[in-house]
Structure formats: structure tokens, C-alpha cells
Amino acid sequence: MAFSGVLHPSWRKFKIFLAMIKFEHTIFALPFAYIGALLTGKRLPSAHDLFWITVAMVGARTAAMSLNRLIDREIDAKNPRTANRALPRGLLSVREVWVYVFLSWGLLLVAAWQLSPLARKLSPLAVLILWFYSYTKRFTWACHFYLGLTLALAPVGAWVAITNGFALPPVLLGIGVLFWVAGFDIVYACMDYDFDRREGLFSLPARFGIGPALWVARGCHVLAPLFFALTGKLLGLGAFYWTGVAVAVALLFYEHRLVRADDLSRVGIAFFNLNGLLSTGMLVFTLLDILW
Q1: Tens digit of pLDDT for each residue in 210-226?
Q2: Would you say 97 and 17 are in contact if contact means Cβ atoms under 8 Å apart?
Q3: I need a labelling partner for 36 at 20 to 30 A (CA). Which of 43, 186, 241, 278 fits?
Q4: What does each C-alpha distance from 265 to 26, 161, 211, 226, 280 come to in angstroms?
């Protein structure tokens, strides 16, 4: 049965919305939130904590992506790669997407109130950090690292949500996530090299060229597993966790074998498939390490 109106969208529009924000890409950050939760006491967190961490992550990521689509809708309409998105095509209205933004922020704030007092206090700061990302490519080529920072909040936020405090291990893990995300976002941005230069947008490929940008991405993907390893060393994690780090190294190496400055045809495989495997693989091996 279909519903009409902003407050009761049809299932068809809801599916369009999920496709617009690439909801499946939640798989990049959510596993690292779970890893942060697992490492708080090297044991399974309570069902209560896992549930509300999941709600917070889904709310935060959905709101951030919705805002990104709203703020960038005019740019997306000009870019041949993104002109087919829902807002440029008129498949969703600006008002409808704003409803999803506020509902998603509401999910995040409700979830924070179910977790630790510090999580509640910091939730408005998380909202501001996520909101600001969409503006960074208008003034700095370091926008990729800022995106990495937003996803780095996942393990740190989960740790805060459970322990009501900060510690070095989730920060190190978060730094690893920052470099991992920045690296693959630089690779992804290479596809918009010509458009970004023409429109005066900021990205590392547009500023320095595709070849040098790919070398920066490779450097990021050397640093990312190094910080994953430092986390494991600090917490005294076992063989399963180290296997996960080794798998991450192998996936990142293969990712950069797929992409060259003169051949970006396989960026989609490198961006989604391999990075989705990396995050879920790290979670699986961390979970095995905790259980055994």
C-alpha cells in the first residue's frame, strides 16, 4: 500500500532515498563501531549497548549523507557522474530529504541518551562535525582527511558510549580508520578530476594531479594498518586480530593494484567491494579474538 505526503512517503520513495544515500555503505563505519565496543572490555557488550550504538550509527550516517546530497544538489546536477541522483532528477523533493535529516538526527540523539552521560554531552558536537563535512571540498583539498575524521568517530564514539570516557586504544583505531577512509576517498575522487578542476572544487587529485594523489592514497593505506596494529599491540590482542590486520593489508595492496592513473575503470570494485570486505573482515577477526 502506498502513502503520499512528506510525513508518510511511499515505500517506493523510501527505496529511492536509501539508494540516494547509498545506505549499504554504512558497512564501512559500522563494523569499526562494533570493534570499538568489543575492545572496551575484550568481551561482548550488552545487547542494550549494541542496539543503541547501531541506532546511533545508522542515524548519524543517514543524516550526514542526506545533508551531503542536499548541500551538493546543484553541484551534483552539473556532474555527469552524479546527475542521475534523486534530487537533481526530482525523484525526491528538498523538503522530503530535510524530513529524513531531522528524523535521523533524532535517532542519533535518542540513542545517545540511552548510552553514557558523556555520549549524551558529545552528541551535538558529533552532529556539527558530520554536518560540516559537506562544505570542506569548497575550500580545502584536505576534505578527504576530514571525511576520514567523521568515520574515525565510530570506534571512539562506541568506546565513549560504553565506558563514559576516552582512552588511547580507540583513538589509535580511529586514526587508522581516518587514513583508511581518506585513502579510498582520494582514489574515488580521481573520477571527478576534470569536473572538480572545471568547477573550482577542492580535492587532492584536482590540486596535485591523479598520479600524485594515488601515491598519497597509497601512503594513507600504509599508515592505516599500522595504526590497527598499534591498537592490537597496546591491548595485547591475539592471533585472530593480527590475522585480520594481515587481511586488511592484503586487501589494500590489491586495491591499489586495480587502480592506475591511466586506468580508473575498476575504482568501483576497489571503493566498495574491497573496502566493505576490509571492515567486515576486521570485525569478524576481532570478534573471534575476543571469543577465543
Answers
A1: 999 999 999 999 999 99
A2: yes
A3: 186
A4: 24, 41, 15, 29, 25
